[in-house]
Structure to design on (147 residues):
C-alpha cells in the first residue's frame, strides 16, 4: 500500500470525476499515479503518497514532472496520507490525515518532507471525515467545483 490506499479513496469520495490510473514507471518515470477530469473540463494529475511522520518516497523524477506541469499551467498535486496506528501507551500518537499540496511544493517535500512544505489543506479523522468538498474545490480551482 505505497499510496496509503489514496487512489481508491479519492475515487470513492469524488465519484463525479473520471479517474484514470497511470502506471508508466518503466517507460516514463515521474508521471503521477492518476489523472482526473471533473464535469466542466477540470482536468489534472495527482501523485499519491503515504507517510507515518513527514518524509515520503517522492523521487527526483516525480518532482521534475510535477514542477514542469505546473510551470506550463497544468494542474498537478500531491496527496499525502499521514497515518500512524498507535496502540496501548502510543494510542495518543494515532492519526489519519490527508495533506494536499500543489505540485509546486514537490521539491520542498523531497527536501523536508511534508513538514517542509505549505499544504493547500490538511484534514484529519480518516477518509470519512475529510472535507471532500474542499478537496474537490482545490483540484478544480473553483469555489464550488463547477464552472
Amino acid at each position: 500500500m505505497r499510496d496509503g490506499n489514496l487512489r481508491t479513496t479519492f475515487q470513492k469520495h469524488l465519484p463525479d470525476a473520471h479517474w484514470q490510473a497511470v502506471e508508466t514507471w518503466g517507460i516514463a518515470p515521474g508521471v503521477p499515479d492518476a489523472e482526473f477530469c471533473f464535469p466542466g473540463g477540470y482536468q489534472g494529475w495527482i501523485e499519491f503518497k503515504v507517510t507515518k511522520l513527514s518524509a515520503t518516497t517522492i523521487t527526483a523524477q516525480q518532482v521534475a514532472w510535477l514542477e514542469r506541469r505546473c510551470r506550463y499551467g497544468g494542474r498537478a498535486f500531491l496527496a499525502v496520507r499521514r497515518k500512524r496506528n498507535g496502540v496501548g501507551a502510543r494510542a495518543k500518537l494515532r492519526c489519519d490525515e490527508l495533506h494536499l499540496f500543489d505540485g509546486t511544493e514537490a521539491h520542498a517535500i523531497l527536501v523536508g518532507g511534508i513538514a517542509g512544505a505549505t499544504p493547500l489543506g490538511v484534514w484529519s479523522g480518516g477518509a470519512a471525515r475529510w472535507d471532500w468538498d474542499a478537496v474537490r474545490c482545490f483540484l478544480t480551482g473553483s469555489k464550488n467545483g463547477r464552472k
